[in-house]
Amino acid sequence: MPQLAYVNGRILPHADASLHVEDRGTQFGDAVYEVCAVMNGRILDWQPHLVRLRRNLGELGISLAIADGPLSLQARRLIAANGHSEAIIYMQVSRGTARRDHGFPGATPSNLVMTVRRFDFAQRLRQLDTGITVITQRDNRWGRVDIKTTGLLPNVLAKQAAKDAGAFEAWLVAGDTVREGSSTNAWIVKDGRIITHPTGTAILPGIARDSLITLARAAQLVVDERPFTLAEALSADEAFLTSTTAPILPVVRIDGAPVGNGRTGPVVRRLADLVWAEVARQTGWRA
Ligand SMILES: Cc1ncc(COP(=O)(O)O)c(C=O)c1O
């Protein structure tokens, strides 16, 4: 089956799906995006993703002509057309196509593109046993990383540094505070308490983060949304990360040093049970 993409209302073969060279997303990173998990052909946490997309558009004053209902329909149409039951759907809205000029163009429609790519979620269950490693990098991003823009160069460089070091992720550290990963939220566990950086302007409010907090609290686990230091992370009992493409993964080493006993701990296992049960509840997906 050929790969298909959505561009401003049309579903096209991937190879023919493109935006104009003067798209503001390319020139200025003047665009926002979402990535959603598709499991068993169904989109996980679709509503929260839509809410975050709308909020980000509002923060940047980008208007999107298509309403939530038709947008959902188009997203589902594209998923069905691609025929993958396990996938990620990427949606990007830029401020539109206009002669290059920093100020906003006048009445220019935004550009909406969507792509779907097959994704193996079962690998994330296997990684629960092995755990993953992270390195640390200085957080040198701008001051509004709560807005999910395509301006991701610092994240790209941090992720590449992790790759070069043979690690899964780079945790971004500001002063001595661990904020989040280059594309994931960061967590530690100490004395049974689950700790993650609070939302605000310094982290992306992850959908997986929010979902995990809800699930953990419903299971009577204690979650503290507060900044934590790198020293705390290094002396934590357990650590983990969350994101749409990695709903929960144990972090067993930070900068080469083992976290706790260097193995997946009981709190992460308990949380993973809750997270994957929620995936099954929403989508019916099971490994
Ligand atoms: C910087 C950053 N933090 C956290 C996340 C996790 O967010 P979500 O759970 O919505 O995928 C992402 C996802 O791409 C991200 O880019």
Task: Give an overview of the whole structure.
This protein is an alpha+beta fold. It has two domains: 4-119, 2-Layer Sandwich (D-amino Acid Aminotransferase, Chain A, domain 1); 124-283, D-amino Acid Aminotransferase, subunit A, domain 2 (D-amino Acid Aminotransferase, Chain A, domain 2). The protein has eight helices and 16 strands. The chain has helices at 24-28, 46-60, 68-82, 122-130, 153-164, 207-218, 230-234, 266-283, and strands at residues 4-7, 10-13, 31-39, 42-43, 87-94, 111-118, 132-138, 169-174, 177-181, 185-190, 193-196, 222-225, 228-229, 238-242, 249-254, 257-258. The strands form two sheets. Strands 7, 8, 9, 10, 11, 12, 13, 14, 15 and 16 form a ten-stranded mixed beta sheet that branches. Strands 2-1-6-5-3-4 form a six-stranded antiparallel beta sheet. It is globular, with a radius of gyration of 19 Å. Pyridoxal-5'-phosphate is lined by residues 35, 155, 180, 183-185, 204, 206-209, 242-244.
Tally of helical runs: 8
What is the first-to-last residue Cα distance? 24 Å
| Assembly state of the chains shown | single chain
- Percent of residues in helical segments? 25-40%
Q: Provide the CATH top-level class of the largest domain.
A: Alpha Beta
Strand runs, count: 16
Using the coordinates shown, work out and report the CATH topology of the largest domain.
D-amino Acid Aminotransferase, Chain A, domain 2
Mean pLDDT: 97
**Broad structural category:** alpha+beta
CATH superfamily of the largest domain: D-amino Acid Aminotransferase, subunit A, domain 2
- Give the biggest beta sheet: 10 strands, mixed
Integer tally of domains: 2
The ordered H/E elements are EEHEEHHEEHEHEEEEHEEHEEEH
By CATH, the architecture of the largest domain is named Alpha-Beta Barrel
